[in-house]
Amino acid sequence: MTPEERGFDWRRGGAAAGALIATLVLLGMVLLVTLASQARDTALERERHSYDVTLLVRSLDATLSRSEAALGRFVLDEDTGKEGSGAIYADQWRLASYQLRQLKKLVQRDPQQRARVAELERLYNERGLELGAAAQAAMAKQGQGGVPLYYAASRTDTGPDLSSQLTQIASAERRLLRASMRQTRFFSGRADRLTDYLSWLGVIVGLMALGLGFIAVQIWRQNVQARREAETLEQAVALRTVELSEAYEALKEEAYERAAAEAQLRQAQKMEAVGQLTGGIAHDFNNMLAVVVGGLDLAQRRLNGPRQEVLLHLNNAMEGATRAAALTRRLLSFARSEPLLPARVAPGELVAGMSELLDRTIGERIRIRVDTATDAWAVFVDPHQLENAILNLAVNARDAMEGVGELVIRTQNVTLAPGEVGDVRGGEYVRVCVSDTGCGMPQEVMDRAFEPFFTTKEVGKGTGLGLSQIFGFARQSGGEVGIDSTVGVGTTVSIYLPRAQAETAEVRMHPVMSQREQAEPSVPGARILVVEDDPRVRAATVGALEDLDYHPVACESGADAIRLFERQDFDLVISDVIMPEMTGPEMVRELKAKHPDTAILFVTGYVGEGEGDDLIGYELLRKPFTVSALAHAVATALHRDSGEQGQAA
After folding, report:
1. Which positions fall inside the Response regulatory domain (predicted)?
2. Of 44, 271, 421, 545, which has fewest CB within 10 angstroms of its CB?
3. Concatenated DSSP letters for 505-564?
4. pLDDT tier at 219 (50, 70, 90 boundaries)?
5. Of residues 263, 285, 280, the one with CA closest to residue 451
6. pTM of the predicted structure, to 2 decimals
7. Three-class SS of residue 145?
């Protein structure tokens, strides 16, 4: 584009912008003129109303005066003819009554004037009684007629009070009239000024070729010209509206195309992230499966060989399977589908209790400082998962400091606004933060810190699931995670956990991976119903229960379990959580309604969204599990149920 074209476009754009601004100003001026004219008309209406009230008051006063004068002549000459003084008195008094009613209608909207007119009406009625007595006596022609009564009526205060009330009404209306006249002059002046401004603007916008000399033209001509120019502006605005509509449609189409391109880009990024996640999982699982398959193959080949060598290969296979189960739990924690053991926890006490473990894990060259608030609120979380999260953060801090530095673990109460940290909801939280004096993280690393399998450590020194697991745990617990890091200074990772509002029932989870059991407890002869949709898991569970001297019966769905309960009773139900058609918690709710004394043990490796709350109050066992872990879980569930029944009794 040449400089001339750019200058032309700039001038054209400037002219269009100026025309648009002038149009908006013109519309605003038209609105102001309309409002000023309406205010002026209102003031004029009030002024006319005041004139009408004042004129009516004067007419009423004159009518009352003529009526009393006619009555005076009547009591003196007792002329009762149609044209006589008596008829004039009666006609004028009725006219005064009509005028009084008209006055009441006129002052209906003014409370003060309405009160004055009410008082005037009272005085009018009282004066009518006084003068009516004289008129009746004159009509009867008794004695001196109505002269004494008329004379007595003229000496009362009713007549002067009546005149005084009329004077007050007239004076008040004159004050209102003066105020209305001032408002009329004010709004008339404002309307004239706004009309003058509107005329100037209309001439400038519509008649660019006219000079300033035409501005002094009479107001009427300016108004006519302004109306003509308003029509022209309406046409211009209509044309401009069409242009803007076309431009809007073009922009909307461009926005749709851009949104589609961004969606394709986001999908490509998601697929790349899924590819990285899948590759990381496949790599780690291949390593672990290699240990499992290799160990089982070697053990199978040496079944007839030395027992110690066979046990060595089986132990290696078990270790690989255990590591695979741990990796699965980390992935479930990242996906916020890991079954939790929520309990009311005091963060300060939990951190203080980890001191020995941290010292042994971190090493002697790193100084650990714990700063916990004495009034820290309690939280309702899985204490084991919280310990793991703090321990993971401490290990990351140790690696960032290369084994030398200071590690600070701090707990404090905070109140967060909605969205202040990530997607956190507004409310009260306990902040558990781990700070180090290590190398820090650049912004590009912080942006990817929570991605699974992303790590900056050397090969073999980290899986990249630590922070992603912490992220999943915090989100699943209703909280959030934040990172604050400066390269060369250090990093602070904060876990925000919602404050526990009240005591809540716990989900008691059996420690599947724990190896502290010394013996396998059992309750021989107990009748157990196994509800599992996977036939291999169902067969393995039944076989393990039979080895433990239980009497298991297996079925593959919740509906089958309900039908079995109709034919016989069971001491314990071992159920999977996620099953087709009817979930484990749904089945248990229906069974508990009919058999409230039945013990329940849930077995799961995944808890779907919304299912975690249904597990509260029951025993929970993670998959995969050993026979020993199953024995402990079954015995705990049976003993717990019998204990609860005893307490109820």
Report:
1. 527-638
2. 271
3. ---EEE-TT-----S----TT-EEEEE-SSHHHHHHHHHHHHHTT-EEEEESSHHHHHHH
4. confident
5. 280
6. 0.38
7. coil
Identify whether residues 484 and 515 lie together within a single domain. Answer: no
SS (H, E, C) 378-418: CEEECHHHHHHHHHHHHHHHHHHCCCCEEEEEEEEEEEECC
Residues 6+ apart with CB under 8 A from 263: none
Asked if 528 contacts 561 with a C-beta cutoff of 8 angstroms, the reply is: no
Q: Do residues 545 and 462 both lie within one domain?
A: no
> Domain holding 31: CATH number?
1.20.120
Tokens (6 digits) for 550: 């239980």
Structurally, how many domains does the chain consist of?
4
What is the structure's pLDDT at 525?
83
Q: DSSP assignment, residue 614? A: G
CB 226 within 8 A of CB 200: no
Which residues are bridge partners to 528 per DSSP? Answer: 552, 572
Q: What integer is the mean pLDDT of 267-290?
A: 57
Identity of the highest mean pLDDT range in 86-90, 157-161, 409-413 = 409-413
Q: Is residue 22 in some structural domain?
A: yes
Q: Are residues 551 and 490 in the same domain?
A: no
Tell the residue number behind the tokens 């951190």, with chain if given. Answer: 351
For residue 329, the model assigns a pLDDT of: 58
| 37: in domain | yes
Please give the Cα distance from 395 to 388 (Å, whole number).
Answer: 10
569 neighbors 551 (Cβ within 8 angstroms): no
CATH number at residue 592: 3.40.50.2300
Q: What's the pLDDT at 512? A: 38
Distance CA 247, CA 240 (A): 10
For residue 608, give the 3-state DSSP assignment. coil
Chain segment 14-26, per-residue pLDDT in tens: 556 666 776 777 6
Bigger pLDDT: 205 or 604? 604
Same domain for 375 and 320: no
Q: Say what the pLDDT of residue 1 is.
A: 56
Q: Are residues 416 and 364 in the same domain?
A: yes
Asked whether residue 272 is assigned to any structural domain, the reply reads: no
Over residues 488-534, the pLDDT tens digits come to 888 898 999 998 875 544 444 444 333 334 445 667 788 999 999 98
Category of 166 on φ-ψ map: left (φ > 0), alpha (ψ -120 to 50) or beta: alpha
Look at the block and give the residue holding tokens 């007050």: 168
Nearest Cα to Cα of residue 541 among 619, 632, 627, 607? 627
Does 23 share its domain with 149? Answer: yes
Last residue of a domain, one of 498, 531, 553: 498
- pLDDT band of residue 472 (cuts 50, 70, 90) is confident
